[in-house]
Amino acid sequence: MWLFCYNTPMRLDKVLANSGYGTRSEVKDYFRQGRVCLQGAIIRDPGFSVTEEQLQDLTLDGVPVLASEHLYFCLYKPDGYLTAMTDDRLPCVGDLLPTNLKTKKISPVGRLDYHTTGVLLLTNDGELSHRLTSPKWHCEKEYLVTYEGDPLTEKETVLFASGMTLREKDHAPEKLKPAKLELLSDHQCRLTLTEGKTHQVKRMLAQTGRPVIALHRESIGSLRLREDQKPGEMYALSSDDIDELKDLSSDL
Q: Tell me, what DSSP letter sits at residue 51?
């Protein structure tokens, strides 16, 4: 986790607000309600100043505060939402952010189609976002695929594992990286990719004559939805979650 780097002490209300814990007015209420503690002592003055070293002992409702320069969230993207922060016509994932985060310059890392659901990483860490979306990134992404047509067979498992070539009308042949196909039932499979070309899963299945009727991203690396997480809900990543994401792109 990257903490703020201060040359001088900073106000606690500013630390909490900048770290995504609420608006400045909401944060001031936390102090009035006695919810903020430093080294076990309740702090009621929003203007109380702290050093970077003291932040290690700061809690909100008894939970250690992650005072970070950047914010990271795992969103359960629902069906029927654009992977965009704003749109004049259709619902988008930016509409799902609480008010206090709308000014934090948070944006999605990569894209999920309008009807695709599942794990979507949101952050204002531009450097990490750029690295994770680089073509050089080889992190595994798992998709639960529901499709129509004849059941997939070991033939497709071998085809995908060898790195199939997409051959589409009016497009040059496109060689894909090897992908892992797990057969789950007659009309459902799990597909693990290490790249993210536009509509890749749908295009791969379409080339085998099987249209995709539902697509759900289960994971990005080790990042998964929580068991009780509902569509439209998100949680803040832990320092371990963030470190693992950074490790994924550490060789770029």
A: -
Its pTM stands at: 0.80
The predicted-structure confidence for 8-61, as pLDDT tens digits, reads as follows 678 898 888 878 788 888 899 999 999 999 989 999 999 998 887 888 889 999
Superfamily classification of domain 141-220 = Alpha-L RNA-binding motif (3.30.70.1560)
b (16+ CB within 10 A) / e for 86-113: eeeeeebbbebbeebbeebebbbbebbb
How far apart are alpha carbons 89 and 18 in whole angstroms? Answer: 30
**Distance of alpha carbon 74 from alpha carbon 112, whole angstroms:** 13
**Which among 61, 79, 113, 170 is annotated as catalytic?**
113
113 catalytic residue (yes or no) = yes
Q: How many CA atoms lie within 13 A of 73 on its CB side?
A: 26
pLDDT, one tens digit per residue, over 115-166 is: 999 999 999 888 888 888 876 777 889 999 999 999 999 999 999 999 999 9
